[in-house]
Amino acid sequence: MGKRLLQHERSSIGGGGNHRLGTEITLLDIAREYRADENGKIDDPILRLQLVQQEMDVAAFGETTRRIKDETESGLTPGFATSMIKLYGSEMNKNNTELMVSIMGPQGLGSYKDTDNFSAREQIVTAAWLGNKASTIAGGCSEVQLDIIAKRILELPNV
User: Fold this and answer.
1) 73 lies in some domain
2) Is residue 159 part of a domain?
3) pLDDT in tens, 63-95
4) Whole-number Cα distances in Å, 119 to 12, 23, 104, 109, 110
5) Distance of CA 25 to the CA centre of its chain
6) CA dist 64 → 11, 19, 73, 127 (Å)
7) 15-58: per-residue pLDDT in tens?
8) C-alpha 85: how far from chain center
9) How many Cβ atoms are within 10 Å of 32's Cβ, its own excluded?
10) CA distance 100 to 125
11) I want to staple 36 with a disulfide (CB 3.0 to 4.6 A). Which of 32, 54, 121, 151 is the partner?
12) What's the domain range around 78?
């Protein structure tokens, strides 16, 4: 029973919803606000590559979670795939907010107590960045999820 409860917890923790921070603040919004020129173009090719990669990861993860949700709604019990959801979702969300903070520079470290120097948006991003770091631990740390995936899904031998 404990394993099944953890599977449900993992699927909700890694659900992938945090990439929007619970608001309409997106990675692209942050990149445009802090790194785009007056025409809205981001000249840094490395940053553009990071943005595209993150958006592709979010889209692929969304399709995977929808497929697993459809399977669950059709009566199948969530299995060890929840470890994949939890691992990838929490790591993806963490990477998303780390990239936001990187783009924002010092303003990405906005304290909720310092309303004079940090906007509400900057404070939300900082809180999400810290929360998403914690999500890689909650519900079973990423290393435990990798172990479950190796043993239960890939059926790799114990070494």
Assistant:
1) yes
2) no
3) 988 887 887 788 776 677 778 888 888 899 999
4) 30, 15, 12, 11, 8
5) 14
6) 12, 15, 14, 27
7) 544 444 556 789 999 999 999 999 989 989 999 999 999 999 99
8) 11
9) 16
10) 7
11) 32
12) 2-14+22-153
- Residue count (the chain): 159
Task: Let me know: does 70 contact 28? Beta carbons within 8 Å.
Answer: no
pLDDT at residue 18, rounded to an integer? 44
Helices 27-35, 45-73: inter-axial angle, 10-degree rounding: 170
Q: What is the DSSP string of 77-143?
A: PP-THHHHHHHHHHHHHHHHHHHHHHHHGGGGG--TT-TTTS-HHHHHHHHHHHHHHHHTTTTS-HH
Q: Please count the structural domains in the chain.
A: 1
- Whether 94 and 135 have beta carbons less than 8 Å apart is answered as yes
pLDDT of residue 70: 82
Is 41 part of a structural domain of the chain?
A: yes
Q: What is the pLDDT of residue 14?
A: 54
Q: Is residue 54 part of a domain?
A: yes
Q: Any idea what the CATH number is for the domain that residue 42 is in?
A: 1.20.140.10
